[in-house]
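Protocol step 4 of 6: structure prediction from sequence.
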Amino acid sequence: MVRLSIWVGFGLLVVGLSTFGCASSEETPSEPAEKAEDMNPIPPEPDPELAAAGEKLFSEFNCKACHQVTGGDEAARGPEDGPDLHGIGLKRTQAWLRSHILNPRPHTVDSPMPGFAVNEDQLDAVVAYLQSLR
C-alpha cells in the first residue's frame, strides 16, 4: 500500500509539472527568463506632454531605424532589427526601461542596441513615450 501511494504521488507530481510547463523539454528559451520585477502588471498612464516629447526624441535618436511600434509581423524583421515596441508600456517597468536605454547589455547580452548617453529629462521623456505604447 505504501509503494502504491508513493507511485500515485509521483504520478501526480509529474502530471502537475507538465501541466504547468515545468517539465517541458520542447521549448528552450533563447533569452534569459523574465524576472518578476521586470514585468509591469498595471502601469499608470504617463504624462501625455512628456510622452509627446519622448516620441520626438525617439525619432531624433533614430530609434525607428531598428524598432517598429506597430504590432507588426516579427517574422518579417531582419536579424539586426530590434523588437517591435508596440505594447512595451504594458510589459516593462519604468525602472527596466530606463536601465535598458542607458545600457541594454545586462538585459539582452547580445543586443546590437547601443547604450544612450541622454540627460535625465530626455530619459524621462523617452520612457514616458515607451510607457504610452500600449
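Step 5 (inspection) to follow. The chain has one domain: 36-132.
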